[in-house]
Amino acid sequence: MARILAIDDDENFLISVKNLLEFKRHDVTILTNPFRTEKYLNNPKFDCVLLDLKMPGLNGFSLLKKIHRFCPSLPVIIISGLSSEDAEAEVLRDGAFDFIEKPFDGMHLLEVIEKALQKSRQNSTD
Fold first, then answer.
1. What architecture does CATH give domain 3-125?
2. What is the pLDDT, as a whole number, of residue 41?
3. Quick one: what percent of the chain has pLDDT higher than 90?
4. Which of 34, 76, 98, 99 lies in the 20 to 30 Å Cα band around 118?
5. Whole-model pTM?
6. Do residues 99 and 80 lie in contact, with contact meaning Cβ atoms separated by under 8 Å?
7. Could you give the dihedral angle defined by the CA atoms of residues 102, 43, 63 and 26, in that order, rounded to the nearest 10 degrees?
8. Which residues, 6 or more positions from 76, have their beta carbon under 8 angstroms from its beta carbon?
9. CA distance 76 to 91
């Protein structure tokens, strides 16, 4: 079981992601207001973050950098409908673990999360 923070301004999307991940026994916290992210990064500790890029007021590009300032080893998976090679290259360069384009296959999301968690566990034991 992993503790996952999912950040997106689309509440319906977050609920469907939460249902999928909870079915796989993950503990999921959803957040529709990206400005509250800092509070959640301080307590409790998360194992992974799912992050949208296009949100009102604070975009995912800026939030990714902020998350990595607080928790440099926390894997962040970008899930976005904003699909372009430039956007994908930028977030990967800025430290995102992976980029998943909306709409996506649930099994693919679960595979990417598992890979991120495995890498995170390896880094914590090194």
1. 3-Layer(aba) Sandwich (3.40)
2. 82
3. 61
4. 34
5. 0.92
6. yes
7. -10
8. 48, 49, 50, 51, 64, 67, 68, 95, 96, 97
9. 10
| Mean pLDDT of the region 55-60 | 87
CB 47 within 8 A of CB 117: yes
Q: What is the mean pLDDT of residues 80-100?
A: 89
**What's the CA gap between 24 and 117, in Å, rounded?**
14
Over residues 5-52, the pLDDT tens digits come to 999 999 999 999 999 999 999 999 999 998 888 888 876 689 999 999
Structure tokens at 106: 């649930």
Cα separation of 36 and 88, whole Å? 24
Domain locations along the chain: 3-125
Residues 55 and 13: beta-carbon distance below 8 Å: no
Question: Distances from the Cα of 108 to the Cαs of 31, 32, 47, 125, in angstroms?
Answer: 22, 23, 18, 26
